[in-house]
Amino acid sequence: MCGITGYVGEHDAAPILIDGLARLEYRGYDSVGIAILEKNGGLAIHKRAGKLQGLADELKHHPPKGKQGIGHTRWATHGAPTAINAHPHTDCTGDVVVIHNGIVENYLEIKARLLAEGHKFGSETDSEVIPHLIEQHLAAGEDLATALQKTVSQLAGAHAILAMSLSEPGTLVAARIGNAGGVVIGYGHGENYLASDLPAILPHTSRVAFLEDGEIAKVTARSVTYSRDGRRVEKATQEMPYDPVTAAKGSFKHFMHKEIAEQPEAILDTIRGRALFGDGRVELEDIGLSTDQIRRIQRVVLVGMGTSLHAAMIGRHYIERIARIPSESENASELRYREPIMGTETLVVSLSQSGETVDTLGAMEEARAKGCPQVTICNVLGGQTARVADGVIYTRCGLEIGVASTKTYVAAITALYMLACYLAQERGVIDREQMAGLLDPLARLPYLAGEVTARSGECDRIAQKFFRCDNFLFLGRGIQYPVAMEGALKLKEVSYIHAEGYPAGEMKHGPIALIDREMPVIAIVQRDALRDKMLSNIQQVKAREGIVIAVATDGDTEVESLADRVLYVPEVSPLLSPVLTSIPMQSFAYAVAVRRGCDVDQPRNLAKTVTVE
Question: Where are the alpha helices (DSSP H) in 241-298?
Fold first, then answer.
C-alpha cells in the first residue's frame, strides 16, 4: 500500500503534500518523497528512506517553493527501501516526474527495450519505466494526458499513477488501471487535490470524485476533465461529510464492502519488498529463523481460529507442495488441550488478524513450552502473537473494521504462499527457475483479484434470488475445501443463515440427504486436477433436484451447462486460486446480508477479537 498525493493551485504545494502524506502514512513508511514544480520553472525533488518525519525535518527551514507538486510514501515492491528507489521517479531528461502505486508486471521487458533504445535508469524499481514511456509519447507530440493514456496501455497489472511535466506547467494527470489502488480528486476553489485516499483531502474540501478503472484525469487549478480510451467522460462529484467514520468508509455503504474492494491492494501490500520478482527470491525481513534452523525443520503445524484456521488449511497445501515439508493444520483451541507431540524440529505457524486471539496464544504457549520455533502471521503491529513468536510476517492491510475478516484473510493466504516459497528457498529444494515459476503468477495476483472484485454485481444478482433461503451447502475439493468452509462461515457470520462447508467427497456420507429444491449448493469447481470430480458432484446434486451455484474458471462453459448459476473468476495457478475463489464468497455473503437487513459490519454476538475463552 503506497500513499500518493498531489496539489495544483494558489498555495505553496510542499506543506499541503507533507500534510497529506502524514495522513496517508499508514499506507507505507519505508521511504518518502515529493516533487515540486518551482516558480522558476525548475523541478525540485526531495526524497529519502525512512518515515515522513525525516523528510519534513529536512524541508522545515528551506521548503521548495511552487504551487504544484506530487508526493509519495512507499512500501517497497521492487528495489530496497533507499533514497534512490523512493518515489518520485523521472525520465532521462528530467522533464517528466511520476509517482506510482502498483506492480508493473511486464517491467523487465519494457526496461530491456528502453535500455536498448538508449534510456538510462537510476533505480531498481519497476515504476521508473513509467516516466520513460511518458517521455517517449511526449516526444512524439502527444499532450501529457494522452501520453499517460498511451503509457498505461503498455503496462500489465493494476496501477494508480500521478504525473506532471515541465512541458505542461499547471497540469497534473492521474490514471487508475485495475483495482489495486484508488485515486480521489478533491475540488477546491482555485485549487484541486489528488490522493490515494480521502483522509488526505477532506481537511481541504468535501467535494470529491473517484477515478474508476481505466479512467484518466487531467487536473489544473481551475478544472478537472476525465477520459477513458481517449474519449471524454462526464463524472459527477460527491459531497463527503468530514467525520472519521465517513472518511474511513469513503464511497462505500459498509466497511465490509470497502474491505472486500481493498483486497487487491491488501495482496499487493503483503507482497511488497518480499517477493523479489527480478531476482527470483523471497525475503522475509522479520522471519526470526536462521537457515540452519529452517533446514532442521521436520514438520510444520499451522494453527488458527475461524477464518484464520481456513487460511491455515490452505497454507498446509502450500508448505507440503512447495517446501516439501510434512504439514498439518489444526484448530488452536483443540491443539492446546490435547498434549500434542511437538519439539524443536516442529515449526509452529500461527495466524491471528489481531495478534490477540486467546486460543491461538494458548496454543503458542504450549508450543513454546515444548521448544518449537514459531512464526506468526498477523495484521496488527506489535500484536501479542508477534511478541511470543520468533518471527512475524505482517500483512500490512491497515485497519480492518468489519467484524467478518475479508482482506486480512486473503493477505494471510498470500503471506503463507510466500512463507512456503521462502522455506523451499532456504532448504534448497527449488532452484531459481522453479522459484520464478512460483513468483510470476503472484505478481499478477493483485490485478486478477481486482478483476474479481469488479464482478460483484453478479453476486448481488444471485443474492437477490436466493437471500430468503434458510440453508446453504458449500462444497470444494483439495485446496478449495477450506474456501468452502470460509464461504459457509461468511454467510453464517453476516446473514445469520445456516450454512455448512464440506469436502465434496464427503457429500455422499451424509450431507446428500439434505439436498432438495430449497437448499442451494455452492460448488467450487476450478480448472484443476479435481475438476472432473467436482463436475460429478454437481451432477449428483442436480439428479436430486438441487440448486447449484458454481464458482468456475473463466471460459468453462461445461460448468455453465450443468449449474443453475455461475460466478466466474479468472484463471490463475491452482495454488493461488483460493485467493480468487474466496472473493465471490465474501461478496455473495455481503449481498445476502444487506438484502436481509442485517448489521453487516457488526453482526450479532460476534467480536472482532476474541480475547476470552
Answer: 244-249, 255-261, 263-271, 291-296
Active-site residue, 608 included: yes
- Choose the catalytic residue: 2, 378, 421, 598: 2
SS3 state of residue 32? strand
Alpha helices for 285-346 (secondary structure H)? 291-296, 307-318, 332-335
- pLDDT tens figures, 453-465: 999 999 999 999 9
Q: Name residues whose C-beta falls within 8 Å of residue 387's C-beta, 6 or more positions apart in sequence.
A: none
Cα separation, 86 vs 552, in Å, equals 40
Residue with C-alpha cell 521492487? Answer: 78
Q: Residue 92 catalytic?
A: no
Measured from the Cβ of residue 585, the count of other Cβ atoms closer than 10 Å reads 26
Q: Please write the tens of the pLDDT for every residue from 51-108.
A: 878 888 888 888 889 999 999 987 666 666 788 888 899 998 889 999 998 888 888 8
Closest CA to 350 of 257, 272, 415: 415
- The candidate with the shortest Cα–Cα distance to 3, out of 69, 148, 101, is 101
Contact 57, 17 (CB under 8 A): no
What number of other Cβ atoms are within 10 A of residue 340's Cβ?
19
| Cis amide prior to 574 (ω within 30 degrees) | no
C-alpha angle with apex 395: 390 to 397, nearest 5 degrees? 150
| CA pair distance 366, 338, nearest whole angstrom | 10
Q: What is the dihedral of CA 91, 92, 93, 95, to 10 degrees?
A: 0
DSSP conformation letters of 51-67: -HHHHHHHHSSS----S
- Give the active site residue among 150, 235, 370, 608: 608
